[in-house]
Amino acid sequence: MTETTSAPIDDPLAIAQTWRDAGRDVALATVVETWGSAPRPVGSHLVIDAEGNFEGSVSGGCVEGAVISEAIDVIDTGKPRTLEFGVADETAWRVGLSCGGRIKVFVEKVE
Question: Sheet containing 81-86: which strands, arranged edge to edge?
Answer without folding.
Answer: 54-56, 45-49, 26-35, 102-110, 81-86
